[in-house]
């Protein structure tokens, strides 16, 4: 489902997490795009639409995982600059062993 080999090889590589919330599906897709930008990944061509039901079931929450705290910081800066007031940061962790939830 994912085109990022780091997600397949193990979540220990993406231990820096950010949990955020939005009620807007378009903003969810923007946040995911900014995650790819921060992680320096090519644009995704598929695989996100089926995640929308899970996002709804989680009350609009999504966990984004980063390979480095600087990349998470880049994401936070750009998401705040571009989408201020459209999403909320709920939690941040530097040692999140969970599975990727992109």
Tell me what you see in this structure.
With 102 residues, this protein is an alpha+beta fold. It has helices at 5-9, 25-38, 52-57, 69-83; strands spanning 16-21, 61-66, 88-93. A three-stranded antiparallel sheet has the order 2-1-3. The longest helix has 15 residues, at 69-83.
Keywords:
alpha+beta; 4 helices; 102 residues
Brief characterization of the structure:
This protein has 102 residues and is α+β, with helices and mostly antiparallel strands.
Kindly estimate the percentage of residues that lie in beta strands according to DSSP: 15-25%
Please tally the helical runs, counting DSSP H or I stretches of 4 or more residues: 4
Give me the Rg, rounded: 12 Å
What is the end-to-end distance?
10 Å
Average pLDDT confidence is 83
Helix content: 25-40%
Structural class: alpha+beta
pLDDT < 50 runs, ≥5 residues: 1-10
Tell how many strands the DSSP assignment holds. 3
Anisotropy-based shape = globular
- Strand order, biggest sheet? 2-1-3
Helix and strand succession? HEHHEHE
Specify the biggest β-sheet: 3 strands, antiparallel
């Amino acid at each position: 489902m994912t085109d990022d080999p780091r997600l397949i090889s193990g979540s220990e590589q993406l231990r820096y997490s950010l949990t955020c919330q939005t009620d807007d599906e378009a903003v969810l897709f923007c946040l995911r795009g900014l995650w790819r930008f921060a992680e320096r990944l090519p644009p995704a061509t598929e695989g996100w639409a089926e995640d929308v039901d899970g996002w709804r079931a989680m009350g609009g929450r999504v966990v984004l995982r980063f390979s480095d705290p600087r990349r998470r910081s880049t994401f936070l800066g750009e998401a705040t600059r571009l989408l201020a007031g459209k999403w909320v940061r709920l939690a941040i962790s530097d040692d999140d062993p969970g599975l990727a939830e992109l």
